[in-house]
Amino acid sequence: MHPLMIALIASAGLGAMIGLVRQWDQRSGTAQPGEYAGVRTFTLWSLLGCVGAFLSDGFSAALLPVVLVAVGVHFVLSRPPSAAGGTGTTTFAAALLTVLVGALVYWKQHQEAVLVSALMAVLLGLKTPIHDWTRKFTPTDIRSTLQFVAVTGVILPLVPDRAYGPFDGFNPHSTWMMVVLISGIGFIGYVLMRLFDERAGITLTSLLGGVASSTATTLAFSRRSREDSTRSEAYALAVGIACTIMLPRVLVIIGLINRDLAMRLLLPFGCMALPGILYAVWNWRRQRRVSPEESPSPPLQNPLSLMMAVKFGLLYTAISFLVKAAAHSGHLQSSLLPLSFVSGLTDLDAISLSVAKNAGAATIVSDLAVRAIVTAAIANSLLKTVLAVSLGSPVLRKHVTVLMALTVAAGVAGFYLIGDAPPAGAPAAP
User: Fold this and answer.
1) What are phi and psi of 164, to 5 degrees?
2) Which of 321, 427, 329 lies closest to 372, judged by CA?
3) Which of 366, 382, 383 is nearest to 418 (CA)?
4) Is 62 exposed, middle or buried (0-12, 13-18, 19+ CB in 10 A)?
5) What does the pLDDT look like over 342-371, one tens digit per residue?
6) How far apart are CA 142 and CA 356, in angstroms?
7) Other CB atoms within 10 A of residue 135 CB
């Protein structure tokens, strides 16, 4: 079959899919008056784009722009004003994009054409839910959203990504990334709680936070528990889930580097994860028995606090500097375990990857590697206990302290279940 015929068929199919979603939107009663475009119209627009691209390549490059202008002018002149006083800007944008989808298909940009078509179909089909959701926004929500966009999209690219100071201990980009991460976890949790019910939103945030940063998740939810003490048990559950998810996440990362080391960590990490799993089951079942009257739900407030995030970013910078200084210290260089403990206070992934790359070689013996990573995990749990105690509500402090105490105790037990201690004078990590 001729390539042009294949492109025409594919263009017609994508245009028909977009038009079908738009026509369903009209029949469901959600379309604005005068928005008449459906399957046939969108199919023809996509075919126009495909033919226009073919003619532009074969005859004149101006033909496709002429098609776009003609569709736009005809659309504006032929459409009556809607009841809202406009001319259907959504359909107008969809029309031009559908023409360009046909052009992309002809130019063999198939993935891009499908992606644009799918996004258009989703946006057109979810018009009513999106409108209903945005009507619930408050001025504080908009202000915080713009603030987070500025922190992430404007400031972050401008921050230099290089080391400064003694021992190269200060990296502005890494510090600001932590600010973005902490702010983002709290903000995502708020959005999920608005999209779903309270408990589902908190649970989803804790799962995502455990994958991204359990420390930042602990800080965000501990702070929220003090501002919103009625949900303290739900926030404590989120902290427990995030801290438990951290352990299999680290195992997966280590397994990609050193499978044997990951297998040896199954026992100690399994011991450390057990208290969190049992606590999550107990807390979840307890919350299910609590009626709405017994657990009042005050109005949600946006949790984005840049000042708190900046303070934690500064703390992260200070601890990172101490880790760099420890790495250059002759005393700590001779012992991996103290270095692992200090490093685990700020970042479990960094020390785990470093040890995994050197474990089994002459640099670090296997038992010492496992002990070093378990030590870092214990230190990380202790840091999260300190965050919960210093920032959380009394209820969250009690729950998290008991949970982390059991986790640390299980880690210590796992530490001694590893095997014989390495001989004195074992080589240290570089």
Assistant:
1) -130, 165
2) 427
3) 366
4) exposed
5) 878 877 877 777 777 766 544 455 677 888
6) 44
7) 7
Q: Which residue has the tokens 């999920």?
A: 192
| pLDDT tens column, 366-389 | 677 888 899 999 999 998 899 889
Residue 99: closest CA among 57, 49, 40: 49
Query: Hey, which of 75-89, 300-314, 401-415 has the most confident mean pLDDT?
Result: 401-415
Rounded-to-integer distance, Cα 105 and Cα 49, Å: 9
Question: Which of these, 215, 284, 228, 274, lies nearest to 248 by C-alpha position?
Answer: 274
In this structure, what are the phi and psi dihedrals at residue 261, rounded to the nearest 5 degrees? -65, -40
pLDDT reported for residue 159: 79
**Element holding 65 (H helix, E strand):** helix 63-78
Res 419: pLDDT: 56
Q: Which residue, chain included where needed, has tokens 């025409």?
A: 8
For 13, the token pair is 């199919």
**Distance (Å, whole) CA 175 – CA 337:** 25
**What are the CA-CA distances from residue 281 to residues 182, 230, 259, 278 (Å)?**
26, 20, 30, 5
Task: Report in angstroms the alpha-carbon separations of 152 from 182, 218, 221, 262, 368.
Answer: 11, 21, 21, 34, 39
Listed by start position, the domains of the chain span 3-134, 139-417
CA distances from 234 to 27, 39, 225, 244 (A): 42, 47, 9, 15
- Given a cut of 80, whether residue 122 has pLDDT beyond it is yes
Q: How far apart are CA 239 and CA 207, in angstroms?
A: 10
User: CA separation (Å) from 405 to 210, 241, 281?
Assistant: 19, 15, 18
Residue 60 region, left (φ>0) first, then alpha (ψ -120 to 50), else beta? beta
User: Which backbone phi and psi does 359 adopt, to 5 degrees?
Assistant: -70, 140
- CA gyration radius for the chain? 28
DSSP string, 2-22: -HHHHHHHHHHHHHHHHHHHH
* Residue partners of 336: CB distance under 8 A and separation at least 6: 355, 364, 368, 372, 426, 428, 429
Q: What is the pLDDT of residue 203?
A: 73
d(CA 221, CA 243): 12
